[in-house]
Amino acid sequence: MTQLVWFRNDLRVSDHSALTEACQAPGADVQAIFLWTPKQWQQHDYGLARQYSLRSALVTVARDLAQLGIPLTILQADTWLSGVDQLINFARQHSVRQLAFHREFGWDEVQRDQYAIEQARLADIATWVGEDRVGFDPATLLTGQGEMYRVFTPFKKRWLSQHAETPLAAPLPVPSARAPALTELPDIPEVAWTGTAELPLNEHDAHEHLGQFADAMPRYKDQRDLPATEGTSRLSAALASGAISLRQCMHSAFSHPKFDSAGVQTWLSELIWREFYHYLLYWRPDIARHEPFYPRWDAFPWQQDETALHHWQQGQTGVPIVDAGMRQLARTGWMHNRVRMIVAMYLVKLLKIDWRQGERWFAQQLLDIDFASNNGGWQWCASTGVDAAPYFRIFNPHTQSQRFDPSGEYIRRWVPELASVPAEAIHEPTQQLARHLGYARPLINYKRARAETLELFKQL
Q: Which one of 94, 307, 383, 420 is at 20 to 30 Å from 264 when CA atoms are compared?
């Protein structure tokens, strides 16, 4: 009986419930399939960096599946729905009896999967749908009043209270003794991304990196906000494509010898935040259509300033820490998380530009773009989302820079115009010094912009 595994944002062979389900079926002949849909990704604002990340993970998956004797087929389609039609035709041609895949959240993803299940039913093909993006079915995590959680801390407490009852890691797939290793690999489209990736993108590299990070995990709380330091896991791209699972990362925290340390606890909390954002997407799929979680904040008079937006995108704002972050993003497809918050607040609460403009730019540039996390982060900074920063919380980018990059090492790497500036002057260089060094002059006056934003929020 042929089993077909549909890979999406779960590009690995370990801890893959759908693959395990297919391989454990009696007498199963297992095949795998992936839909290559660049036009659909573009509709979601996912750029070449995201496609490059997916391709990197997919190449490794194809090789690992081949070692298991499982062929991977790549189907190219303009949209997910047309891709599903091709997938069902493929399934018919190969006498597939069951299609296995993992559930995904998001408006278009839900419509795609419902369509796939219906078309499979019409073709007399059974479907098996597993949970993979999150540790628990979001429908099972509710408040005492039977409602969704809108605040992270009680959600986290509920999540932890159920953790012991539900295993975090699915068993590894069992290769069939009747399936020898394959030598022919699928033709995977090339991606013309010109950046330099500094993150692990495939399953093997991700697990090697996780093993290395485990040594530093107890120091995570102290180092995670320092952009010049390797203080974070840098597993975000692998998590976004599914080259490593959230369960596997959580397992590394729960099994850590220093589990009770502040560093391990903080990293675990960050992983649960990632699940919380997917949880919100499940309960409020309208946020996938660029709606704020709390609509009242949509009345804020966002500025239509294309010139300021362009300067922000290009890292030419005259604020060194902001420009360093935006240039790191352009070069590597990644940005340190503390700097993401700084550049986001600068855009929405100082330049007063709609958070959706920033969300879209990040989606187009990031290797690690995950809609739920990206949207959740931007709405947190804009004060429009669940458990977000209060409207009066506005980062001062200069003091943030002094606090988290005190020596200016991060700034010097990404803003070479300021390489010779001493630490005491690099966070807010004078206009005279900036002009001498050929550096951009500030777009705004921080104090004035902050006061204006606070007044506009108060009026709402």
A: 383
